């Protein structure tokens, strides 16, 4: 297979984890990196032995023959950067949340379709061996039909109005940053909800430092989700079925083990260890799609990203979370 030529936009913390995991897969590499701070790009390129680095995103897209760009910038930049890549004929893997609101996502999906390019939100946990096995067990009926999901994700972060986590101009707040994880699990297990009830604690900048939501589904299923940057939570997940349950302990989003608890009292521990941060599974999945000429990934299709964005739009609408990009223009 011809090596896929990767570029990276925004060499921050997540991009470093992503790039680090390339060392775990043979004959796969990143070609170049771009940052608004060229010194940051140079340091990143030196660290991962990249052939080139740039202090301008468009310059990288113009000079490099890239197959795909991984966008790892703060949320509020995703839309314009993804749009730029697609307009330049380059496929996109964009960090979550893929955009600030569903209107932006609709534009990107339309552009990707017009250009016949691959486009995916980087919901990397879906590809981890843990979740591959969890959904295989659910599919074969180990716990019966799923009737409820309960998941949280929280850590304590002192308030700083300039921090990415609190600044509305950077898409701050717990929902977009970490609340998407329990929302993703609920959606994968139960589908799209028919009703959402959400409450939030808002900072003085009108972004959330905590969200709690209850979601109701047509088949009488319920989900309880929580995200917070006010406290260190248990960060665990429970998937309840008619004949048992699955418990994924701390940190459930990238745990290498889970428990299957049967109704008869039997408990099975399933351990799925891996090296690195776990991004290599997503990388390989994306490259497989590119090799096959696919425009979306079957495990993370465009429809899944759109469902997640619509749900977050509704939660924000109910709780009054406002960002400069949306002007409350919910669709």
Could you explain the architecture of this structure?
The structure is a single chain. The protein is an alpha/beta fold. The chain has nine helices and 14 strands. The chain has helices at 13-20, 38-48, 57-63, 78-87, 102-115, 129-139, 174-190, 280-292, 302-319, and strands spanning 5-9, 29-34, 52-54, 68-71, 91-95, 119-122, 146-154, 195-202, 208-216, 222-228, 237-241, 244-248, 257-262, 267-271. The strands form two sheets. It has an eight-stranded mixed beta sheet, covered by helices on one side. Strands 3-2-1-4-5-6 form a six-stranded parallel beta sheet, with helices on both faces. Strand 11 (237-241) and strand 12 (244-248) form a beta hairpin. Helix 4 packs parallel to helix 5 (102-115). The relative contact order is 0.16.
């Amino acid at each position: 297979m011809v090596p896929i030529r990767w570029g990276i936009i925004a060499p921050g913390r997540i991009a470093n984890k992503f790039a680090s995991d390339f060392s775990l897969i043979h004959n796969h590499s990143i070609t170049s990196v771009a940052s608004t701070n060229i010194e940051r790009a140079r340091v990143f390129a030196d660290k991962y032995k990249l052939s080139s680095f740039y202090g301008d995103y468009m310059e990288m897209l113009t000079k490099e023959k890239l197959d795909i760009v991984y966008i790892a910038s703060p949320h509020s930049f995703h839309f314009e950067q993804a749009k730029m890549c697609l307009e330049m004929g380059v496929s996109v893997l964009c960090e979550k949340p893929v955009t600030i609101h569903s209107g932006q996502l609709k534009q990107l999906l339309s552009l990707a379709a017009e250009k016949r390019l691959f486009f995916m939100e980087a919901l990397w946990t879906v590809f981890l061996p843990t979740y591959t096995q969890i959904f295989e067990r659910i599919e074969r009926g180990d716990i019966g039909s799923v009737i409820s999901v309960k998941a949280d994700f929280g850590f304590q972060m002192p308030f700083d109005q300039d921090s990415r986590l609190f600044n509305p101009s950077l898409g701050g707040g717990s929902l977009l940053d970490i609340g998407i994880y329990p929302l993703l699990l609920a959606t994968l297990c139960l589908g799209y909800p028919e009703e959402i009830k959400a409450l939030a604690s808002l900072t003085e900048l009108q972004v959330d430092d905590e969200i709690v939501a209850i979601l109701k589904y047509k088949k009488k299923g319920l989900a309880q989700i929580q995200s917070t940057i006010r406290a260190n939570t248990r960060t665990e997940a429970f998937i309840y079925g008619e004949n048992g349950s699955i418990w994924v302990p701390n940190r459930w989003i990238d745990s290498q083990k889970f428990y299957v608890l049967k109704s008869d009292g039997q408990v099975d521990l399933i351990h799925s260890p891996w090296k690195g941060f776990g991004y290599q599974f997503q990388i390989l999945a994306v490259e497989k799609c590119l090799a096959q000429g696919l425009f979306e990934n079957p495990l993370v299709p465009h429809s899944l990203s759109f469902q997640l964005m619509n749900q977050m739009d509704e939660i924000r609408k109910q709780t009054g979370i406002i960002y400069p990009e949306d002007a409350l223009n919910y669709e």
